[in-house]
């Protein structure tokens, strides 16, 4: 087989601080891989600007004019990491044999890309980059990440432990991924479902090169919640179980208190009354909220809106850049 054409897909949201460094590191890596005949000379890096409000796009654009290996795709608005990545993967796989997704902050080790390519030529369609150590992450992030994986596993969702979105996918794997038309996208959950030959490569995750995380606590929690509710209805069942249990408990208590009343031992009972009102009220609100979350998901999916739109002003440019080699 000829050297495979690789496209490295990098989603970027307000990344002006790291981008120049990222571009030069990735360029160097691409050049090295081409020189050593690991990948074809038609390989490239595709930066997806996810509706950034800073200079991200102008940096990408300028570099794309200077180097034939740098390509850009500008989305019309911010659609979030997962959908931006999808936009990049779908665009990239049209002109490549395989794609690798990596974050713009270079926390993932570009040095293992050659190992990814080795696995690809061994016949694997999907190669997961798995973090061996999480030294760079704060204790809190480590603990919440672990809790999340454990919970997903309990809910029956097959995730690759300690794998984020640093992975290689073959053209046919991305084409299969395209068939999953959900708007609430959680790639880490979907990719293992594709059922292609897959393997893992271990690496050390580093500190963010510059700039701030685009996943503050609020976004991280919502991402985790999204992951759970997109893949499992177990939480709804759990709510029902709690409802049934509290119903049975209230029956028992009711019988007990009524019996006491007939025996003439009237309870003052205010404390138990007020506590149970709050308890049941709270449980009901949680249950309604949870069900609302699922209904909201159905609502979003039923609208069938496109998951991303490419910026019209740059559409021609994007096409030209993609067709250039
Ligand atoms: N990102 C994106 N759109 C968003 C948020 C983030 O494309 O709405 C990109 C971001 O530029 C980065 C990647 O997603 O390349 C991961 O974000 P970040 O590094 O901030 O997340 P963390 O590593 O802290 O989990
Ligand atoms: Mg990061």
UniProtKB/TrEMBL annotation:
<feature type="transmembrane region" description="Helical">
    <location>
        <begin position="270"/>
        <end position="295"/>
    </location>
</feature>
<dbReference type="InterPro" id="IPR001173">
    <property type="entry name" value="Glyco_trans_2-like"/>
</dbReference>
<dbReference type="InterPro" id="IPR050256">
    <property type="entry name" value="Glycosyltransferase_2"/>
</dbReference>
<keyword id="KW-0472">Membrane</keyword>
<feature type="transmembrane region" description="Helical">
    <location>
        <begin position="238"/>
        <end position="258"/>
    </location>
</feature>
<feature type="domain" description="Glycosyltransferase 2-like">
    <location>
        <begin position="7"/>
        <end position="177"/>
    </location>
</feature>
<dbReference type="InterPro" id="IPR029044">
    <property type="entry name" value="Nucleotide-diphossugar_trans"/>
</dbReference>
<keyword id="KW-0328">Glycosyltransferase</keyword>
<keyword id="KW-0808">Transferase</keyword>
<dbReference type="Pfam" id="PF00535">
    <property type="entry name" value="Glycos_transf_2"/>
</dbReference>
<keyword id="KW-0812">Transmembrane</keyword>
<keyword id="KW-1133">Transmembrane helix</keyword>
<protein>
    <submittedName>
        <fullName>Glycosyltransferase family 2 protein</fullName>
    </submittedName>
</protein>
């Amino acid at each position: 087989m000829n050297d495979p054409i690789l496209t490295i897909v990098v989603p970027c949201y307000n990344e002006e601080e790291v981008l120049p460094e990222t571009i030069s590191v990735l360029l160097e890596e691409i050049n090295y891989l081409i020189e050593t005949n690991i990948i074809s000379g038609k390989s490239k890096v595709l930066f997806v600007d996810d509706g950034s409000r800073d200079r991200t796009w102008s940096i990408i654009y300028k570099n794309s004019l200077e180097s034939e290996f740098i390509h850009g795709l500008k989305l019309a608005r911010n659609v979030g990491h997962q959908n931006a990545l999808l936009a990049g993967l779908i665009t990239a796989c049209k002109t490549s044999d395989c794609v690798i997704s990596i974050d713009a902050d270079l926390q993932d080790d570009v040095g293992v890309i050659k190992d990814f390519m080795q696995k690809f030529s061994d016949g694997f369609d999907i190669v997961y980059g798995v973090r061996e150590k999480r030294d760079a992450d704060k204790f809190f992030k480590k603990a919440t990440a672990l809790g999340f994986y454990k919970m997903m596993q309990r809910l029956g969702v097959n995730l690759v432990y300690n794998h984020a979105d640093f992975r290689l996918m073959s053209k046919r794997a991305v084409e299969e991924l395209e068939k999953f038309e959900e708007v609430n996208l959680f790639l880490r959950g979907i990719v293992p479902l594709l059922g292609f030959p897959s393997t893992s490569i271990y690496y050390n995750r580093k500190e963010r090169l510059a700039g701030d995380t685009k996943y503050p606590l609020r976004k991280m929690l919502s991402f985790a919640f999204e992951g759970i509710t997109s893949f499992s209805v177990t939480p709804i069942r759990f709510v029902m179980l709690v409802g049934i249990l509290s119903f049975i408990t209230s029956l028992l208590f009711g019988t007990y208190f009524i019996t006491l009343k007939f025996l003439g031992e009237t309870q003052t009972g205010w404390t138990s009354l007020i506590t149970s009102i709050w308890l049941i009220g709270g449980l009901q609100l949680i249950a309604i909220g949870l069900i609302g979350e699922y209904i909201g998901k159905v609502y979003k999916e039923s609208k069938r809106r496109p998951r991303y739109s490419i910026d019209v002003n740059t559409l021609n440019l994007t096409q030209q850049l993609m067709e250039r080699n």
